[in-house]
Specification:
Layout (H helix, E strand, L loop, with lengths): L8 H8 L6 E4 L6 H9 L5 E5 L15 E4 L6 H7 L5 E7 L4 H5 L25 H7 L2 H11 L5 H14 L5 H8 L7 H16 L2 H15 E11 L2 H13 L18 E3 L9 H6 L7 E7 L4
Parallel strand pairs: 1-2, 1-4, 2-3, 4-5
Antiparallel strand pairs: 5-7, 6-7
Helix pairs in contact: 1-2, 6-7, 6-9, 10-11
């Protein structure tokens, strides 16, 4: 049973324009919600490869001969597709961010709602936890993390206060961290805590670096005419995806050949980001900030 209610489900499946006998990738398998919908569109000769670095996600793998589960970060997409005999694919879907299961599992340390260790590792085999980031990063690094990844309004004050606080005692648990944060909250408490925790999660899992690696490899493994559908939840992620679709790189720099022709590796299927309906947000509040962008690899590539 899938534990994840997938965001923008019908829109993302429609965006993939699935061929029944094609090879597809669910780059963020999680609870298997999107994967189940892709499999419904595939025929007997179709194939779906699901990636997830979280060990827990493997339990959701469907018993279906058309499906292959790969326990790996999607930043290793190209290598594992080759390993599983699928160097080229017809479509890739990625639903970025943290899964509902990870948020709701107290011991994983992703949410400020629980009493647990400050962990936040999507891959439990990695060594660096959120507690390590909080206790050992210098002030400049903390400022960057909270300012860029969390868009925290008082990131400078927060970074400086954290460096002072940990001189007296290390911060290892969620409750200790929240107790430290409470006097520093600006604006709505829930939103502020969410921004701080999001910033730490992105840093711990190198989500921006992984996304950049994944996007580059996606272009390389897609057949001409293949589609890439990405759901993002954070302005930095969305900007990277938007830039990549428009220019072929996450920085958004237009590349030209010797004759001045602009290199555009993708055709935008959705000119603007596709947003969830009011009905979907009511039924699945975690889809509130979701944005879907879909692009097709140029047939000339």
């Amino acid at each position: 049973m899938a534990y994840h209610l997938p965001a923008l489900a019908s829109e993302s499946i429609e965006g993939l324009n699935i061929k029944p006998d094609g090879i597809y990738v669910d780059a963020t398998f999680g609870g298997g919600g999107h994967a189940a919908l892709i499999l419904k569109e595939l025929g007997d000769k179709g194939r779906l490869i699901g990636f997830d670095q979280d060990e827990d996600a493997a339990a959701n793998a469907p018993d279906d001969p058309r499906f292959t589960f790969v326990k790996a970060n999607f930043r290793d997409l190209k290598r594992f597709l080759r390993l599983h005999g699928a160097p080229k694919v017809h479509g890739i879907l990625a639903d970025l961010g943290v899964s509902s299961h990870q948020l709701d599992e107290a011991a994983r340390g992703f949410s400020y709602r629980f009493k647990a260790e400050l962990d936040m590792r999507m891959n439990a085999a990695e060594k660096r936890t959120a507690a390590d980031v909080v206790n050992h990063s210098d002030e400049a690094t903390l400022l960057r993390i909270f300012g860029e990844y969390g868009e925290v309004r008082n990131a400078r004050t927060l970074a400086a206060a954290l460096v002072q606080e940990r001189k007296t005692r290390p911060i290892r648990s969620i409750e200790d961290f929240v107790a430290f944060l409470d006097p520093l909250v600006r604006g709505q408490r829930q939103r502020y805590l969410s921004q701080v925790f999001q910033a730490l999660r992105i840093e711990v899992n190198d989500e921006m670096g992984a996304l950049a690696d994944f996007l580059k490899q996606s272009q390389e493994v897609l057949h001409p005419g293949g589609r890439l559908a990405i759901i993002s939840y954070h302005s930095l992620e969305d900007r990277m995806v938007k830039n990549f679709f428009k220019t072929g790189n996450v920085d958004g720099k237009l590349e030209q050949d010797f004759y001045g022709n602009i290199h555009r590796p993708f055709t935008l299927i959705s000119k603007k980001a596709i947003l969830p309906s009011e009905k979907e947000v009511r039924e699945n509040p975690r889809a509130r900030s979701a944005k879907l962008r879909v692009a097709e690899v140029d047939l000339k590539i």
